[in-house]
Design goal:
Elements: H1 2-57, H2 61-74, E1 78-81, E2 87-89, H3 92-99, H4 105-113, E3 132-138, E4 146-152, H5 155-205, H6 220-267, H7 275-305, E5 311-314, H8 315-332, E6 336-340, E7 346-349, H9 354-368, E8 373-379, E9 386-393, H10 403-406, H11 425-435, E10 439-448, E11 451-461, H12 467-471
Parallel strand pairs: 6-8
Antiparallel strand pairs: 1-2, 1-4, 3-4, 5-7, 8-9, 9-11, 10-11
Helix pairs in contact: 1-2, 1-5, 5-6, 6-7, 8-9, 9-11
Length: 472
């Protein structure tokens, strides 16, 4: 999150520095070129004064020497041209070589012969190589008798421009570095409550309602948000605890009267006469037993839901403690138990234990499906990092349209109305698996004549083995 914040702030800062630095860089470049132009224009004006005197007196030796010394000192060739653009004074070789690199020179000279000074060049970009041509008329107004021309290589000027641009870039980089240096700890301070809230909500989604966040750090608004979050979680936890306590207390308080009522009803058996009375007695006893099982299931649900932590479990170790019991249950009814689990699977078991969940799923397969074969299988983690443990059978199964409802509390299939059960087992398993970050779904099971049985697929996250345990 901090990286995303910097990814927004830094480009904005770069745009701001660029919006200020680019015009400033252009201004600096134009000023450097303007200074060069003014220097060359002053030099050309001085040569024009000497040229006017030399032409009027017919003595050009002094002007020729000045132009030669000027070229030696500054590397800028200069010349005096007549009204026909012919070279009058200056080094013909140097001037012609410089003139050959500039196609705009004839136009500038013609404008100067008409009495107009040349304008400064706009070709100042570092990747250009156009020279600066300055043409100064000799004479006044319509009495122009010649033109002094200097052709300056702008390489040094462009080097100075690059140097100034580098300095400006360095100055612009300083606030960017300062922004990153300040934004990194500030963003950490600002976003720390958000990260804590994210971690807390992840823990709460796994069923731990006791998690709270530190409301003493970060900006005022986020501290207020953290305080509201803690208050909300206090209320939610209190409501859930009250609900669990009510279920547990009500179930516990009803067990004694229900047990007494069952004893009273069973004591009536010797006093009954007639077939109708005995049938009513049997119905009453069955209903009392069903109510007793329901209360036991509610108490078990309240106890299991009070367990919050999901812990790693080795599937091999878990099966070693359960498989003998499962085989004993299947052998009583002449059913077959198969186990197809690869070794070394470490996964995060639900609160209350994965063993309890598998006990319920196998019990349902044995009691409700009429299956001949019950199979426990496991699949290693896939790309999502989930391990699947599957309990499937070749029994009657559940219609695909009813599978979602079968995972809800108190749902009973019409074909199982006379089979002992409460309709709570699968629903409790679904909730416990979800609190470990997993998922429980129903699918097609083992093939049988005319279709498939039922499969209960439990998907749980892979548990990371502690580093110290891995080293040992």
């Amino acid at each position: 999150m901090r990286h995303r914040l910097l990814a927004v702030l830094v480009p904005l800062a770069v745009l701001l520095v660029g919006a200020l630095g680019v015009p400033l860089g252009i201004t600096v470049a134009e000023r450097e070129l303007q200074e060069t132009y003014v220097d060359r224009l002053n030099d050309a004006g001085r040569f024009a004064s000497l040229a006017e005197t030399a032409l009027s007196g017919g003595r050009t030796e002094a002007l020729d020497q000045e132009l030669e010394r000027y070229h030696e000192l500054y590397g800028v060739p200069g010349a005096l041209l007549g009204t026909d653009s012919a070279l009058l004074v200056g080094s013909e070789h140097e001037f012609e070589a410089a003139r050959g690199d500039n196609d705009a020179l004839p136009t500038i000279v013609q404008a100067a012969l008409a009495g107009a000074r040349s304008e400064p060049s706009r070709d100042w970009w570092p990747w250009q190589d156009s020279p600066l041509v300055v043409a100064e008329p000799v004479g006044r107004d319509s009495e122009v008798v010649g033109v002094v021309v200097t052709i300056s290589d702008l390489e040094r000027t462009r080097e100075r421009i690059l140097t100034r641009w580098a300095q400006l870039a360095a100055l612009g980089l300083l606030p960017l570095l300062a922004l990153v240096a300040v934004a990194w700890p500030v963003s950490s301070w600002v976003l720390r409550p958000v990260r804590e809230l994210d971690t807390a909500t992840a823990g709460i989604s796994r069923g731990d309602l006791s998690i709270r966040v530190d409301a003493g750090g970060g900006p005022v608004e986020l501290r207020r948000l953290a305080g509201s979050f803690n208050t909300m979680m206090d209320a939610v936890e209190h409501a859930v605890e009250r609900q669990r306590a009510f279920v547990a207390d009500a179930s516990h308080q009803l067990r004694n009267p229900l047990t007494s009522l069952r004893l009273v009803v069973e004591s009536l058996r010797p006093h009954l006469s007639g077939e109708a009375g005995r049938q009513a007695y049997d119905v009453a006893v069955d209903e009392l037993r069903a109510m007793h099982r329901m209360l036991n299931a509610l108490l078990a649900s309240a106890r299991m839901e009070s367990i919050r932590a999901a812990e790693p479990v080795d599937l091999d170790t878990l099966l070693a403690t359960r498989i003998d019991r499962w085989r004993a249950l299947t052998s009583v009814e002449g059913q077959e138990l198969r186990v197809d689990v690869p070794p070394g699977l470490l996964l995060l078991e639900p609160p209350g234990g994965l063993g309890s969940v598998l006990d319920e799923l196998i019990s349902n397969a044995l009691r409700l499906s009429g299956a001949a074969v019950v199979e426990v299988a496991a699949r290693p983690a896939d790309a999502t990092g989930m391990v699947e443990v599957v309990v499937r059978d070749d029994g009657r199964g559940i219609d695909p349209a009813d599978r979602d409802q079968a995972l809800r509390r108190f749902w009973r299939s019409p074909r199982h109305q006379n089979v002992p059960g409460t309709g709570l087992g699968l629903a409790i398993c679904v909730e416990l698996v979800a609190r470990a970050g997993g998922d429980l779904r129903l699918a097609d099971g083992l093939p049988r004549d005319g279709g498939h049985g039922l499969a209960a697929v439990v998907a749980l996250p892979v548990a990371v083995e502690p580093a110290d345990a891995a080293l040992t």
